[in-house]
Amino acid sequence: MIPMYPYYGYESRCRQVPITFPPQHQNVQPGLEYLMYPVPISDNPQYKGSGKLAGKIAIITGGDSGIGRAVAIGFAKEGADIAIVYLYERVDAEATKRMVESYGRRCLMIEGDLRQPAFSAEAVRRTLECYGKLDVLILNQGVQFPQASILDISDEQLENTYRTNIFPLFYMTKAALPYLSPGSSIISTASVTAYAGAPLLVDYSSTKGAIVSFTRSLSLQLVDKGIRVNAVAPGPIWTPLIVSSYSAEYVRTFGVNTPMKRAGQPFELAPTYIYLASEDSSFVTGQVLHVNGGIMTET
């Protein structure tokens, strides 16, 4: 049995966050947050909303856990109602729904496979049926399958990685765009690996590079419509994707090679998404904001 919190040591404004993690591995991606130890920190109780997103409606793909859950909570604190799209992680999604509702906002759960083009249209349709409009689209779903050699990346893995990480950005944007209006925002989750590379994640990193190019190009296409398009590039963040893709031994020291000597927690990214979705970033489009513990990147 793992002793309680032997790895905690960094004191943040929010609460203690772990420096290292107990070895653990889950066999199915994208992973289940409720099975992780310690559970990722999704909510910063010191963060007080000020109505930055009051009355807004947001779809968050991958919103059941990890970064998506933290964004859903942060958006709720700022006054938005949420639709979370997830693959199969219903227990995690229900927990996110309870957290959003605890801040007085509504949360619609939409379960399905974003690799299928028709499901994106369904997700947007259900959101509109529930809330009547759409203001913010957060594209946050993803998988990764580490391989030591490109020779080990099967055709099936390559297609799955691209079909999960990049194709839904096109599917969801095409489904949502007719309902977005001036002032709306599209925000994708890229990665530090798009800039720094990752020897174990050649296919994953290349999808994240595609997200950067997608963001820059789509922002130019939509700027005249008053719709802003940006992205966030996280560094190593403690989420279910980590324990479901890396070995237990790798997890033990996950994130310690950053300049801050630790992995980030999901709550530490939420304010960046809030900024990009709000009027605070009214002169920001086509940009990628880096939240990575100090890793130097060429932008």
From TrEMBL:
Q: Which is one Pfam family of this protein?
A: adh_short_C2
Name this protein carries in UniProt? Dehydrogenase
Keyword Oxidoreductase attached: yes
Protein family (similarity comment): Belongs to the short-chain dehydrogenases/reductases (SDR) family.
For this UniProt record, give its keywords in alphabetical order, as a comma-separated list. Answer: Oxidoreductase
Extract the signal peptide range.
none
This protein's record includes keyword Chaperone: no
- PROSITE patterns from the entry? ADH_SHORT
Q: Extract the InterPro entries matched here.
A: NAD(P)-bd_dom_sf (IPR036291), Sc_DH/Rdtase_CS (IPR020904), SDR_fam (IPR002347)
